[in-house]
Amino acid sequence: MIDALLYRRLRPILDTAAKPLVKLGISANTVTVVGFVIGLLVLPALAAQRFDLALLCIVLNRLSDGLDGAIARQTKRTDAGGYLDSVMDFIFYSAVPFGFLLADPAEFGSVAGLLMFSFMGTAATFLAFAILAGKHGIENPNYPNKSLHYMGGITEGFETIVAFIVFCLWPAAFPVTGAIFAALCWFTALTRLYLGYRTLRLLA
């Protein structure tokens, strides 16, 4: 919901932080892959109910997600890099609720499954529209440097990370907080479905 605003505010900071990495010859794709591996460590951390370590993995993953884009802007942006970044982001997002399922299947399993189901809704409506937006040349002024067309909603990247932080800080409340966030995700998915369909109908 506020990703575009944060993107503009954080971009100068990330660009500054990326400069030493660029001088060392570290590529954007390397940061993407390393950040993804760190993000997947959330699975064993959550399975062991080390919610503090899981939170650290989440924060480091999101930091790398910002840095890889900054490095790409200072070197060379490629569709291959954008593709790699997007795929790994969506896998990471699903890893967090799956990790809670591993932590306590009896207590967290149903809500974790509901969250993964809701993430499928937000991802499908986002990616399907991004493909067709590229085909029709629909402009994306809020994210001019992104590889894919970003379709907004109540639950974007920032809100998802806030939810993950809440889950890790108060794990016992996950059945409630997870269900609330799943409902917000479905609101986003249905809104995107309606707006995306209406937009493409006008282009027909």
UniProtKB/TrEMBL annotation:
Q: Which UniProt keywords apply?
A: Membrane, Transferase, Transmembrane, Transmembrane helix
User: Does the keyword Membrane feature in the UniProt annotation?
Assistant: yes
What is this protein identified as?
A: CDP-alcohol phosphatidyltransferase family protein
InterPro entries the record matches: CDP-OH_P_trans (IPR000462), CDP-OH_PTrfase_TM_dom (IPR043130), CDP_ALCOHOL_P_TRANSF_CS (IPR048254)
The record's Gene Ontology biological-process terms are: phospholipid biosynthetic process
- Tell me if Transferase is a UniProt keyword of this record: yes
Q: Which GO terms describe its molecular function?
A: phosphotransferase activity, for other substituted phosphate groups
A GO cellular component annotation in the UniProt record: membrane
Family classification: Belongs to the CDP-alcohol phosphatidyltransferase class-I family.
User: What PROSITE patterns would the database entry show?
Assistant: CDP_ALCOHOL_P_TRANSF
Q: Where are the transmembrane segments?
A: 21-47, 83-102, 108-133, 154-173, 179-197
